[in-house]
Structures are given as structure tokens and as C-alpha cells.
Amino acid sequence: MALTPRGNQIEEFNFSPGRILAGKYEVVSLLGAGWEGEVYQIRERATGIERTAKFFFPKRNVRDKALKFYARKLHKLRHCPFVIQYHTQDTIVYHGIPVSFLVSEFVEGELLSSLLQRQPGKRFMPFQALHLLHALTNGIEGIHRVGEYHGDLHSDNIIVCRYGLGFELKLLDMFHWGAPSAQNIQDDVVSMIHIFYEALGGKKHYARLPGEMKSICSGLKRSLILKKFKTAGKLKIYLETMQWE
Ligand SMILES: Nc1ncnc2c1ncn2[C@@H]1O[C@H](COP(=O)(O)OP(=O)(O)O)[C@@H](O)[C@H]1O
Ligand SMILES: [Mg+2]
What we know:
Largest sheet: 6 strands, antiparallel
Helix content: 25-40%
Strand content: 15-25%
CATH topology of the largest domain: Transferase(Phosphotransferase), domain 1
CATH class of the largest domain: Mainly Alpha
Bound molecules: adenosine-5'-diphosphate, magnesium ion
Distance between the termini: 72 Å
Low-confidence stretches: none
Structural class: alpha+beta
């Protein structure tokens, strides 16, 4: 006899392309699977518009807490052009268990992590990395300005929509650690420096980087980073006024 999973036992959904969900959406493809759930590209059947849906594992979303925090944060940030747009939420019944999902815009682009992997030497040149960091400070400053924080900033949660002279980014997958605090805001600033360091090639190339780059990375020392750059805005101004030796 096949066992029906209980809510706290669901660890994957594995929806196949073509599957209809909630009568309204068709699965296009799986985009990613993580700790909280699975993320799919879906098509709204009534309009043909493609969207993204995050299906939460019930044990990671008790009483819809995770979904509500994410939805409310995205809604609060709806005027911030660097953050994915929230659309709606809905529920399906999966093996008799209600499963909630959050629908957002589908962003075309490439994850920063994968774009970096494709670069010669798997890293950006210093000037490109500076442009990336500048675009990030823009996005994060916008989030902090409305009293919010990202909470889980790394290269798998950043989509690069366009990249040329400058970067167009979309930030996604925010995490709720509790009410916004100085620590949450500072964590975002420190995370940006870690992303910059990763974009420059990480440990392997650090010693040979120009002094200006090392000075921004601050040896990845949290206290040093925060002493130099108290906020995303301060870091942005620093980048806009810095000079090469
Ligand atoms: N709105 C979106 N548009 C395009 N791709 C997305 C979108 N949201 C998520 N993805 C893709 O799905 C992956 C997983 O989504 P994410 O929200 O980061 O969930 P988790 O990291 O918890 O699995 C992302 O790394 C990205 O590749
Ligand atoms: Mg993620």
C-alpha cells in the first residue's frame, strides 16, 4: 500500500511540465528547489502570461507564516524596481494536504552565480565587479529606505537581467529574521561585500587585487566593513566618489 505523506513529511513536489495547478496555471519548468520549497516557472492559462510560483513545504510554512512574510515584504517593496513583483497567492491540495504557493513575476535573466561561472577565470575584472556592487547598493538602499532588509543576499538570489556598461539586477528570495533591526540592515551591507569579493574571484585572487578593491573588501572583516560603510547609501557614495591611485 502506498503511504500518503503527512504535511510534515512533504520534501518534494516534483511537478512535471504541463501539469495544471489550481485549475489556473500550467507548469512550464522547475526553476529551483531549496529549504523552503520548490520554485516553478508557470503559465497563467487565462492569459498565457508566464509567472513564477514558489510552493512551500508545509513544515516550513506553518499557518502560512513564511508565505505571508514574503508576500508582505514584496508588497511593501512594490515600488522598488530592483525587487521582483508580488502577484498573488493560492493553495492546491497535494495528497490531501493543503499546500500554499506565492505567485510573482517571472524575471528573464541569469543568476549571478551562473553568470560568474561563465566568465573567463570565473570572475569579473575589478571594474565590472565595481559596477555590480554599485547596482547592488542601489537595490539594497531602496529596500532599506522603506525600512526593510533583504535577509538572504547571495549570488543565487540575484538575477542579472542585463549586463553591459552597468548591471540591471532583480533581487528575490528574502528571508524574515524578525522585525527590521540595525543588525539585519548591517547584514545586508556585509553580504554585498561578500558578493563583491566572490565576483572578484574570491580567495584565489584576493592577494593580487588592486589596493582599491582590497580596501572595499576589508579582508571580509565585519567590524571593519561596517566601520567604513555604515549603510548601503554610504557604500554607494563611496563607489561614486572613489579614485584610482
Ligand atoms: N521571479 C523569478 N523569476 C525567475 N526566476 C526565479 C524567480 N524566482 C526564483 N527564480 C529561480 O528559482 C530559484 C529558487 O528560487 P528562490 O526564491 O531563491 O527559492 P529557494 O532559494 O528558497 O529555493 C532562484 O535561484 C532562481 O533561479
Ligand atoms: Mg534562493
